[in-house]
Amino acid sequence: MKEIAINPVTRIEGHAGVRIYLNDRGDVDSAHFQVVELRGFEKFLSGAAIEEAPRITPRICGICPTSHHLAAAKATDQIFGVEPPATGKKLRELLNIGQYIHSHSLHFFMLAAPDFLLGHDCPPETRNVIGLARHSPDLAKKAIAVRKFGQRLTEAIGGKPIHPSNALPGGMSAPLTAAKRAELATMADEALRIALEGWDIAHTLLDGVDTEFGAVRTGFMGMTNHGVYSTYDGPVAVLNGEGGRIGSFTGTDYTKFIEEYSEDWSYLKFVRLKGGENYRVGPLARLNVVEKMGTEHADAALAEYRERFGTVSQAALAYNLARYVEFIASCELAVKLLSDSGITGTDVRTPAVEVVNRRGVGIIEAPRGTLIHDYTVNDAGIIERCNLIVATCQNNYAIDRGVEDVARRVVKNGALSDGAANQIEMVIRAYDPCISCATHAIGRMPMKIELVRKA
């Protein structure tokens, strides 16, 4: 048995692996994306008070804690039978936008860009954020400035730059002050300027790249509000592999459309449509689902994106460009919300008094895709059952099949070069997987690739 290990693979959040199995001729027989970490949060949330869920679940991950915070808060709204006031809802939406600006800029500029701007076969000691900073120092500085705005937005509205805590049943615990709004509005204008300048680079990022690498035919799922891009509120639309609309859902209706399942090579759950068709979520899926972004510059970017990839794309690498279109939209939406003087209103919460419903399902669009928090409680509001369906689980099948597709292309004579291994990793990175969210990992973080020759 021959093994080639790459450990660690950089620029991925979490602990995962790839195993490539070779036949006697040295060709790829099969390959899998593997995750073998503990999934624990669903169990140790049982027995906690439901109002604690928005404070506990952000600890699942330090990269996308806001997503879990808000999904849990929306679920608690349902359980207590309360709806946030208009200002409270706007603050939640702005908090979610802060997560997008922070997460999308981090992934695009610091995780994905080195592969395209420096070259996928560039030496690994150079093909990273440090190498990018040396190659394009102005770009790196701008990326840091935008990320700073995303974190500042999270801190000002959520109470903390990481693991926010201000969303609670019925709204938010504190209003946004006029002084903070003024500060954030100035930063938002600068972030939008940087995002638009970056589009000059982003829209050419995949020029000359074979975007069929890792392409997988699936259906798609994403939130939309009457055809307009939305990340906090609205029904989730479901498309089949041809791009035809199957239907849409909100709340507990998600169980009519999707089902979870497992495979023996991974502890990470898989999710598929009822009937067996696999689907994807995240930036690519959302752009496949929506008719328009709803903001001037993002709509222009979407038009350019669709000139190349069409209205419905199956290309995995297109996730990178779709993510940037969303990044522009997020900056525009931040400017819009912070220009609204009503966002500093003090009516930010509807008091939650008693349990009205024994079950609550909170659904939002996290940066990586549709996130579902499903809680069942007893009459005292103690969690009896918790189910978390995260984006990486929903993309698990496509990542797995994309890995095998690229492995078959790049493994030559039973050998895997460093540049070829990185091409496999590029497909994984396109999805920006968050392994901690998907498995709630405990332990080490690196991903490794192993090449195994069957006896």
From TrEMBL:
Keyword Iron: yes
InterPro entries: Ni-dep_hyd_lsu, Ni-dep_hyd_lsu_Ni_BS, NiFe-Hase_large
Binding positions (Mg(2+)): 42, 388, 440
Residues annotated as binding Ni(2+): 61, 64, 434
Residues annotated as binding Fe cation: 64, 437
One of the record's GO molecular function terms: nickel cation binding
Keywords assigned: Iron, Magnesium, Metal-binding, Nickel, Oxidoreductase
Cofactor: Fe cation; Ni(2+)
One Pfam family cited in the UniProt record for this chain: NiFeSe_Hases
PROSITE patterns tied to this protein: NI_HGENASE_L_1, NI_HGENASE_L_2
Family stated for the protein in its record: Belongs to the [NiFe]/[NiFeSe] hydrogenase large subunit family.
Protein name: Ni/Fe hydrogenase subunit alpha
Organism: Methanoculleus receptaculi
Taxonomy of the source species: Archaea, Methanobacteriati, Methanobacteriota, Stenosarchaea group, Methanomicrobia
